[in-house]
Specification:
The protein is about 20% helix and about 40% strand. It is an alpha+beta fold.
Length: about 425
């Protein structure tokens, strides 16, 4: 190696050394012209053999990294190219101001540059830089995202991202951007959180063939029955819902719906219509009962000790004032409205469900047999006709028109006073 007057290494390479050697032999040849013929011929033979030997020698640059011999390169320009490539890589990783300079030395030596020496030198230089390593880099749309120690690890990680969005209905799955894996030198920090970085950078587009089952409501037809009340109905044929399967092609990005396309619909189970019989006769009842008058309970249902009336009381007595209003406990048809034995003036109402209610001992009747009354309509006035010990309304409840039962459980609670003045 030669150095200039400034002390810097001159880039003269191996070819310049051969030229200098040839010039030296030329000067020696000129001097031989002044020697005798025999002596000159001998010297020339020796020089020729020396030139031939020199021309056949393998002269190269021996390269060392951090003092360790790596191999031979053919020229200084080749070594400069290797170092420049290393410097570019480090600047790409750490920035142009990284300040990392490899410790590389070289000297002319007898040797032969071998194929692949550039990669060996480059690898040895990078191995001396702890912050950089030869890894398998994942690129997304040309940008490095993360790195893995092996090609298999990179491939498995990419596959796991796709697998997270694939189901048994998935028709296709692909990345929205271009994904590639290349081996190269890059900062070892790219190994940190590489799985998370990969998930954050990749967008997986899946197309699934989803089958959606929908319920098809059954229709209802009505059959009119003139013998039934309009409030009554009867199911002739129960309805049954059908099932409709619709196939969609659903496109999702990272599991989030982006679009869908309807392919086909198939009725897998036909609905069964429902048939209902309904009455046409007017309905007057509500199905519930109210107290027939204001007052307080003077006698309850069932057995009692009394000198007036029955000892087995068939209803409840509600005491009040003469002429107090008595109203229908529920709507219905008046089937009796006149005086009847011990009941005195009595009103009987048959309700839509067949129940009959009695309102006895009235002082006046305000309805007639055959009248249709509504719940709460005034039908009579309170009195003490018939067999009665005082002014009150005797109220009976006969389910289906049969025997009387205690009406109290069918009436609203805590409406009337419960004081009983007689047994």
């Amino acid at each position: 190696m030669r150095y200039g007057s400034d002390g810097k290494l001159k880039k003269e390479g191996i070819c310049s050394l051969r030229v200098r050697a040839a010039c030296a032999f030329r000067r020696a040849f000129d001097r031989l012209m002044h020697l005798g013929a025999k002596r000159a011929a001998a010297v020339l033979v020796i020089c020729a053999l020396s030139v031939f030997a020199i021309s056949r020698m393998n002269i190269a640059l021996a390269v060392s990294v951090e003092g360790d011999f790596v191999g031979y390169v053919s020229s200084r320009s080749e070594l400069d190219s290797i170092i420049s490539k290393v410097r570019t890589t480090t600047e790409n990783v750490f920035g142009s101001e990284c300040g990392i300079e490899p410790d590389v030395t070289c000297h002319v030596s007898f040797g032969k540059a071998e194929p692949g020496i550039a990669d060996a030198v480059e690898s040895r230089i990078f191995s001396s830089i702890s912050e950089i390593s030869d890894l398998y880099i994942v690129y997304v749309d040309g940008e490095p995202v993360c790195a893995f120690s092996s090609a298999k690890d990179a491939s498995d990680a990419i596959s796991s991202v796709v697998a997270g969005y694939v189901t048994e209905n998935t028709v296709s799955a692909e990345f929205s951007g271009e994904v590639s894996v290349c081996e190269g030198y890059i900062g070892v920090d790219m190994l940190e959180n590489n799985i998370k970085a990969l998930h954050d950078a990749l967008s997986v587009i899946t197309v699934d063939k989803d089958v959606v089952e929908q319920t098809v409501k059954y229709s209802t037809t009505y059959v009119l029955d003139d013998d039934m009340l309009e409030s009554q109905s009867e199911i002739i044929t129960p309805g049954q819902s059908g099932k409709l399967e619709t196939v969609y092609l659903v496109t999702r990005e990272n599991g989030v719906l982006s679009s869908y396309e309807k392919l086909e619909s198939t009725l897998t189970q036909a609905p069964v219509p429902c048939e209902v019989r309904v009455g046409t006769l007017p309905s007057y009842s509500t199905g519930s009962y109210i107290w027939p008058c204001d007052g307080y309970i003077s006698s309850r249902f069932g057995g009692r000790r009394t000198s007036v009336g029955s000892s087995n009381h068939a209803g409840i007595d509600i005491a009040g004032h003469y002429g107090d209003k008595i109203w229908a406990s529920d709507g219905g048809e008046v089937i009796f409205a006149e005086e009847y034995s011990g009941y005195g003036l009595l009103v009987q109402i048959r309700h839509d469900n067949g129940d009959v209610t009695y309102y006895a001992h009235c002082s006046a009747l305000l309805v007639e047999e055959g009248d249709i009354v509504k719940q709460g309509q005034v039908i009579a006035e309170m009195g003490s006709t018939g067999v009665a010990s005082g002014v009150h309304c005797h109220f009976e409840y006969r389910p289906g028109g049969g025997k009387p039962v205690d009406p109290a459980p069918y009436l609203p609670e805590d409406v009337l006073d419960t004081l009983i003045v007689s047994d």
